[in-house]
Each structure stands twice: as structure tokens, then as C-alpha cells.
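Support reply, case 0932

Customer input (verbatim):
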Amino acid sequence: MNAKLLFKTLFLIVILLLLVMMGLNNQQSVSFGLKPLLKKPVAQPAAIMYFACFAVGLITGTVLTAGGGKKGGAAKPSKTEK
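Our regenerated output:
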């Protein structure tokens, strides 16, 4: 297994664990306002707000790092084709 992939997986698990811990320990309601987009503030439990912020960050990171492969050209031959 690739060490980089293992590290990334462990890092994601730790972040998810922190998200669960925040949700369990912060059950009070939180108000979130964003004047240009929302007419009135949204009040939700803190756990939902943490999850929403995490999801937005995760999706943003995925979109920014997606792709990046070589453009054009022929595919690399496999070891069996050499």
C-alpha cells in the first residue's frame, strides 16, 4: 500500500472523529447568517453546522485537487506490453 494514501486515510479518519466528538459535545443551537445569500439567519444544532462546514471544505478540496493527469499523448505502456 502506498504510504501517502495511508497517511491521507488516517488523517481523514482523525478529522471525522473530531467532527463526531464536536457533534456529541455541542448540542446547543447555533445561528448562522450570510446576508447576501440568506434573508434571515439559520438556526441549527451545532453538530449540523460542523458537518455542513466540513462537507463544504471536503467537496472544495476534492474539486480543487481532482484531475491533474497528463493531457494528450498516448497512454503509458504497462509492464506486460514492454
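We compared this against your earlier run and they match. Two observations from our side: Residues 3-25 form the longest helix (23 residues). The helical segments are 3-25, 46-65. Please reopen the case if you see a mismatch on your end.
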